[in-house]
Design brief:
The complex is a heterodimer of chains A (356) and B (348).
Chain A lengths: L21 H26 L14 H9 L6 E3 L5 H7 L3 H8 L19 H4 L11 H15 L5 E6 L6 H12 L4 E7 L2 E2 L2 E2 L13 H4 L3 E5 L3 H16 L5 E6 L17 H10 L2 H11 L5 H24 L33
Parallel strand pairs in A: 1-2, 2-3, 3-7, 6-7
Antiparallel strand pairs in A: 4-5
Helix pairs in contact in A: 1-2, 1-3, 1-11, 1-12, 2-3, 2-9, 4-12
Chain B lengths: L3 E2 L20 E3 H15 L3 E5 L15 H9 E3 L4 H13 L3 E5 L10 H8 L2 H5 L6 E6 L14 H7 L3 E3 L4 H13 L4 E6 L6 E4 L14 E4 L4 E5 L2 H15 L4 E5 L2 E3 L3 H11 L2 E4 L8 H12 L9 E3 L10 H7 L3 H12 L2
The chains are: A alpha/beta (356), B alpha/beta (348).
Chain lengths: 356, 348
């Protein structure tokens, strides 16, 4: 989905005091509901043994994922983790091709070379194919941002990692270098309070992740990651700041991971009261839906229509994925080298020699 | 062979100026590498360099001396000490159409960026179809009393990762031509210079800006008929000296210089074995699972019917490169060791 995002975040008369025009707010609700429904349906299929591989639920964190991705223009790049599939869908990835990847089919974005949410669509929607060694994409985002800076293109790179990845050396290297070179990059930490099973208190000794920005000479902002509009506003400001050439921003978006690290993990280490509090009071999808209803932006019928669209898209995607062929076993070694030509002909891919 | 050994500077830490080609047109390996970088920077403005102390200081070995004055700090980029990010940043820049050449002060320090090299750089194209024209270069190898952390031959670690073309040239011309090819290649490359060779070996080197040496092609550096010595890097020079001595005793050794260690030029190796029927695999990476282990396996698997003797390997033991001169000399294969190994082979 290519779109132009209104630069203006401030409420004005045109939007009746709301931060975005109504059609945009409805679109945000669509992405939130898509994310939630996809997450629940895929988990059900996984538990029924009908989905191969793994699932990494982003439930409870949709406000962060939609909020940051919605703040990007089509030409800006996104460097997500396995937890952030919703951010990639918001950036525009097609649900059916995402689902083809989950089932290991040739029509998946990575042609069966990788599975589940380890996905990306660099040439189409400028999203980096997820890797597991977090925050492995942080240094790479620095390089994309360096290229934007050199070219004076005004594009921005936005990278996401979790609270756990902030303990890794690369996180600090990347923040430091981005500050030294004033790179057009936005660093998002999706603080869902647990690194697999390890709580924040055992991950770092500072009260917040946001205040670590000061150590690198960049602003750090802490935001309620369950409030999509709050996240969007902060992310939009950081993106525009980077676009202006004023350098990186660190955003800590706090939410809670409702499910385990992966499909196999019952997450018994999360205190029940904490989980109940987040599920009852800080549900990013329900809270935003209520806000739009209160504001008179959507009716019950509108919400039902969005839900029906999401249902339909999921079913169509599932059907598409199962109908898509598996990759040819004989192609297993192809694409190791560029000159194999394996990726030539994929949408947006030139491949071949440097002249192309 | 029109190659000369010249007096080298102190212990490999060559902080003295890089120098220039002689009036006779001969260039050291160091100068040839600098020329390759310079010519490709002139030719293609997408090419840029990044690394530690490569700009104002001109690099730990002075390979990039004078570059910042010509190309500016944006294209000769001094970075903080952050190897993971130097590699990762190269990947990101390549994804956006630039052609980065990252220098490591010593090839040893590539391992500080190991994860970005072996997880991102090596696998990204296979997984996602995005070409990554990245060159990682730095001085490798021992023999200069630089001990454990400044002497490594890291090529097996990264060859195992796959997806990265790895070059270990022994001569100035090969170094220049291969580095130019690596910069123009759309795949990731690792260009391992040998610091023992830097200022010791010089020869006539082409000044044609289109002079290229193909990646993945070995080269027979000395023809022979009795035994093949398959080798690369600084060991090529030892093998050539040993071959001279062997010739005095009537043994004719053929020297195959791999030049690129991954992917391997099996054809040239096997052609030589067909001719000589005896193989000594000589390499400076560790004996156990070093580059020569694969070479020996290829010969055993594909040239068994041509062999008159078991394949012999000669390589350092799997211990850290020691400092004390008698220890390092015992660690590295020496000319006498090569002669003895060839004598064993000739006895079959």
């Amino acid at each position: 989905m290519r779109r132009t995002v209104a630069t203006k975040v401030e409420p004005d008369a045109e939007t009746a005091g709301r931060p975005l025009p109504d059609d945009r707010l409805k679109e945000i609700l669509y992405f939130l509901k898509l994310a939630r429904y996809f997450d629940e349906r895929m988990e059900a299929l996984y538990r029924q043994g009908r989905l191969p591989g793994a699932i990494y639920s982003g439930r409870g964190q949709e406000g962060t994922h939609v909020g940051v991705a919605y703040a990007l223009e089509a030409e800006d790049s996104l460097f997500p983790t396995h937890r952030d599939l919703t951010a990639q869908l918001t950036k525009g990835l097609e649900l059916k091709r995402v689902m083809a990847q989950f089932w290991g089919r040739i029509d998946g974005y990575l042609r069966g070379r990788d599975g589940n949410s380890h996905i990306g669509d660099w040439y189409g929607h400028r999203t980096y194919a997820v890797m597991s060694h977090l925050p492995i994409a942080y240094p790479v985002a620095c390089g994309a941002a360096l290229a934007y800076q050199r070219a004076g293109s005004g594009h921005v790179a936005l990278a996401i990692c979790g609270d756990g990845a902030t303990s890794n050396g690369r996180w600090h290297e990347a923040l430091n270098i981005s500050a030294v070179f004033r790179l057009p990059v936005v660093w998002v930490v999706n603080n869902n309070q647990f690194a697999y099973s390890t709580p924040n208190a055992k991950e770092f000794a500072v009260p917040t992740i946001a205040e670590r920005g000061a150590a690198y000479g960049i602003p750090g902002v802490r935001v309620d990651g369950t409030d999509v509009l709050e996240v969007y506003g902060v992310a939009r400001e950081a993106v525009e700041r980077a676009r202006r050439g004023d350098g990186p921003t660190l955003i800590e978006a706090v939410s809670l991971r409702w499910r385990g690290h992966a499909g196999h993990d019952p997450a018994k280490y999360v205190p029940r009261e904490l989980l109940e509090h987040y599920m009852l009071s800080k549900d990013p999808v329900k809270n935003f839906e209520r806000y739009l209803k209160d504001q008179g932006v959507v009716t019950d019928e509108d919400v039902a229509n969005i839900q029906a669209r999401v249902d339909r898209e999921f079913d169509e995607g599932h059907e598409y994925a199962l109908a898509s062929p598996f990759p040819e076993p004989g192609d297993v070694t192809k694409g190791w080298w560029v000159e194999d030509g394996y990726w030539v002909g994929e949408p947006g891919r030139a491949g071949g020699t440097e002249a192309s | 062979m029109a190659t000369q050994q010249v007096e080298a500077g102190a212990a490999g830490h060559g902080a003295e100026p890089r120098g220039k080609r002689g009036e006779d047109g001969q260039a050291t390996y160091l100068i040839a590498i600098a020329e390759a970088l310079w010519e490709e920077m002139e030719r293609d403005e997408r090419v840029f360099m990044l690394g530690e102390d490569i700009g104002v200081y001109g690099g730990a070995f002075k390979v990039t001396e004078g570059f910042i004055e010509r190309f500016g700090p944006e294209r000769v980029m001094d970075t903080p000490i952050a190897e993971e990010t130097i590699v990762g940043m190269s990947v990101g820049a390549a994804m956006e159409g630039l052609r980065p050449v990252a220098e490591f002060q010593y090839a040893d320090f590539m391992s500080s960026g190991f994860d970005e090299i072996t997880t991102v750089l090596s696998r990204y194209h296979y997984r996602a179809g995005v070409p990554l024209p990245v060159v990682l270069r730095g001085p490798s190898g021992g023999g200069v009393r630089a001990s454990s952390f400044h002497s490594i031959n890291p090529e097996p670690w990264y060859a195992y990762a796959g997806g990265i073309k790895i070059m270990c040239p022994a001569f100035p011309s090969d170094a220049k031509g291969l580095l130019k090819s690596a910069i123009r290649d759309d795949n990731p490359s690792m260009f391992l210079e040998h610091k023992w060779i830097y200022r010791r070996i010089k020869e006539q080197v082409s000044e044609d800006p289109e002079f290229l040496v193909p990646i993945g092609a070995a080269d027979v550096k000395r023809e022979g008929s009795d035994v093949s010595i398959i080798t690369y890097g600084a060991m090529v020079h030892k093998a050539l000296e040993a071959a001279e001595a062997l010739a005095q005793r009537g043994i004719s050794a053929e020297i195959v210089d791999l030049r690129t260690v991954y992917p391997l030029d099996e054809e040239t190796i096997l052609r030589s074995i067909e001719k000589t029927s005896r193989a000594l695999v000589l390499y400076e990476s560790y004996r156990f699972l070093g580059i020569g282990t694969e070479v020996a396996a290829v010969i055993a698997e594909k040239a068994f019917e041509h062999l008159d003797a078991p394949v012999v390997r000669l390589a350092p033991p799997n211990v850290p490169v020691p400092f004390s001169p008698p220890l390092e000399d015992a660690f590295l294969p020496q000319i006498a060791d090569i002669e003895a190994a060839v004598d064993r082979l000739a006895g079959w």
